[in-house]
Amino acid sequence: MAMHHPALEPLLEGDVYVPETEQRLTESLELDSLSTTEILALLASQDRVAVDAVAAVAPQLAGLVDVAVGRVLRGGSVHYFGAGTSGRLAVLDAAELLPTFNIEPGVVVAHMAGGARALVHAVENAEDSVDDGRREAATLGADDVAIGLTASGSTPFVGGALAQARELGAHTALISCNPRAALAALADTDIVLRTGPEVVTGSTRLKAGTAEKLALNGFSTALMVALGRTWSNLMVSVVATNEKLRRRTLRILMQSAGVSQSEGAELLTRADGDLKVAIVTAVAAVPVDRARAALAAANGSVRAALAGLDAPSA
């Protein structure tokens, strides 16, 4: 027998708006009576909402990428600010850019409320400190981009960071899941992921977190592509820090330059392990030194370097 449920809470508690992420999801009212398979199916169906929410904000996200590209090319950097799940997702995204795209340290930086300890432990009141957010953003400048991540759109730590960043002339952006986000007024770019109520009420590690992860993946990947960190769809900036990645580097060279395994290994040796240099050397049929110079003149873009050498594109 289905359990009787009182009316779902209204949008307002007194005069205070209840964010969509804190409201109850009709489809999961009987959650604790479902089978394991039914719970997983429900979660999967709701995850599709997160995918659609990110697709819906593609134009705004693209605009933010374009702003970030221009500022990074001028020597600026991108800073993520978040707490709890949002902060952990920000740290994950920033950390993965180094091995994947060989991005220089300091170009994309994540600031987590509560610091490193908060990655694995709950740090009491960390997200509630406006002053901590301001301190984390104190070094930003006019060529930087500050991106606040908060499902509710109201985290004080994020608010402090965005306020400080704006005062210092940085471009500010807010990624939230609340169309009435309190911090939207601090954002030059306001991106709202409409994920709605969670399967477990208020647990924004679910749809909201998934949507934030997808939005960050899209933002940083598009940023890296625009900065020339790929060639075609190949990860030509990958840092070979282990045997798996060394095999991947060789495979990418073989795929992109049409060389054999032994030829690729020899090319990488001559290029001191620099995959981009090896690719340009092979595809343009030029000496290693000339390939390295062409890449330097093209800000590290294989496509632009090959164009400068009048070589075939991917």
UniProtKB/TrEMBL annotation:
Claim: Lyase is one of the keywords in the record: yes
Broadest EC class assigned to this enzyme: lyase
Pathway recorded for this protein: Amino-sugar metabolism; N-acetylmuramate degradation
MF GO annotations: carbohydrate derivative binding; carbon-oxygen lyase activity; ether hydrolase activity
One GO BP: peptidoglycan turnover
Catalytic machinery residues: E96 (proton donor), E127
Keyword list, A-Z: Carbohydrate metabolism, Lyase
Purpose of the protein: Specifically catalyzes the cleavage of the D-lactyl ether substituent of MurNAc 6-phosphate, producing GlcNAc 6-phosphate and D-lactate.
Subunit structure: Homodimer.
Anything else known: A lyase-type mechanism (elimination/hydration) is suggested for the cleavage of the lactyl ether bond of MurNAc 6-phosphate, with the formation of an alpha,beta-unsaturated aldehyde intermediate with (E)-stereochemistry, followed by the syn addition of water to give product.
Name listed for the protein in its UniProt record: N-acetylmuramic acid 6-phosphate etherase
Taxonomy of the source species: Bacteria, Bacillati, Actinomycetota, Actinomycetes, Micrococcales
